[in-house]
């Protein structure tokens, strides 16, 4: 079912809300056994892949149920990520800079390595 604003209410609606716009990636996700998981894996390489943007997309899709069901987990994940960053001498601001959008970066460890290599 589509929402009033014509958004799809599954992984395709989230895909439409991202800046991916790549048919090869779309087809790969479409044929995956877990399309939403793969979508998030692919999207994390784009600058607009943030929790705030994901929540905004879900709101646009009228998927408040998904937000409500996952809010506590998201909060815990964000706290764990913040703790990990602090342990590595980084801040959220450091992660959100251009280094995090780089194709060279897949994990927080990669960011720490790039930071120390300067």
- Averaged pLDDT: 82
SS content category: mainly alpha
Report, as a whole number of angstroms, the end-to-end distance: 50 Å
Strand runs, count: 0
Rg, Å, rounded: 16 Å
In percent terms, what proportion of residues is strand?
under 5%
Count of DSSP H/I helices: 8
Shape: globular
Q: Give start-end ranges of low-pLDDT stretches.
A: none
Main sheet specs:
none
Order of helices and strands: HHHHHHHH
Kindly state the percentage of residues in helix: 55-70%
Oligomeric state as shown: single chain
Provide an overview of this structure.
The chain has 118 residues and is mostly helical. Helix content is 64%, strand content 0%. It has helices spanning 11-17, 23-30, 35-43, 51-60, 64-87, 92-95, 98-101, 108-117.
Walk me through the topology.
Blueprint: H1 11-17, H2 23-30, H3 35-43, H4 51-60, H5 64-87, H6 92-95, H7 98-101, H8 108-117
What tags apply to this protein structure?
118 residues; 64% helix; 0% strand; globular
What's a concise summary of this model?
The protein is mainly alpha-helical. It contains 8 helices and no strands.
